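Supplementary Methods, section 5.1.

A reviewer requested that the exact input to the structure prediction be made available. We therefore reproduce it here, unchanged from the version used in the analyses.
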Amino acid sequence: MVVTLDDVLGLLFAVLLGGAIGLEREITGKPAGLRTNIIICLGATAFTLVAQRLGAELGAADAGGRIAAGIVTGVGFLGAGALIQQGSGVHGLTTAASIWLVASIGIACGVGFYLLAALVTFLALATLYGLAPITRKIRRYRQLRGNVQPPSQ
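The structure derived from this sequence is encoded token-by-token as follows.
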């Protein structure tokens, strides 16, 4: 397999974008942080690159779709491992969703959809950072009203 400049750019972009999401998770003290998100994004990119080559070399037009489906399923299991049930609440939902999202960013990098990958990363960071103050205010409001639930992530 020949590694092209576009392959290298896709892999580097995956590290950068997965790292951006991971940095937010690391700063906020969540279980799947910087390294985990980079590795997931990089792995999804590598699988996608391999799927493209297999499809081209073996004439398997659906290889990319099957590999992508496998990535989504496998990452779903990683996300499930991030979920923790505590009392009547579940923690780790945002972490599980971030893991799933980072894999999609990796797939986008693997097929060369860099603008899409960057846009998804930007929107995810805007959501994670931008909605945090609103979420805190809602939690405080619920605590004042006596409608207390454990914080979810």
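DSSP finds six helices and two strands in the chain. These observations are discussed further in the main text.
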